[in-house]
Structure formats: structure tokens, C-alpha cells
Sequence to fold (107 residues):
Amino acid sequence: MKRCTVGIRHPQDRSRPATGRGQPSVWFPSMSTMAAVLSEDNRALLRLIRDQRPKSLTALAALSGRRVPNLSRSLRMMEGYGLVRLKRDGHGVEPVALATSFKILID
Fold:
């Protein structure tokens, strides 16, 4: 898994964020949003996906002890920030962790 660099960009800041080496690849609108998305539970879930490679949300639910609807909400939120990819096929959804290590830049 790659290390993901994250940063805070306030919604009222309309300027384009800096890009390039060392710059955040994931932007959060506030510290509280970042804390919610990168909570201990969500980071543990990302590590579980990385290590166990479950083939479905049902398998991930069995591994994590969480219910499928709860997992689905968490994973869709993390997918929106580019931390997870949900591979959809005819039979279900396979979660793939795209990042499990984070570098946080705070100005």
C-alpha cells in the first residue's frame, strides 16, 4: 500500500490546491472531517482489508464484526476520498484498500 498524504483545504478556499511531490493527494474540508474519516476504527478496517483481502462485504462483515450496512456507509465515504476502491461485479462488491499509511500536512 502506498502512503497517502492528506491536507486540509477549507471549502471557501476556491484556489486550486498545489500539486506535485510532497503535496497532499487527498484534501479534507476540516480537521473534524479528517478525524472522522481517519478514525481508529476506519484505519483498522483499511488494515483488515489490506491483510485479509475479503472478496465481499459479507466476508468483511464476518472478519470485522460489523454489519454490512454500517460497512457499506463507511466504505462509500472512504471511496469518496480515494482511500478505498469498491470493485463491483455481478455478484457483489469487493473492497480494496488503496492506502493504509497516512502523512498529514497541517499549515
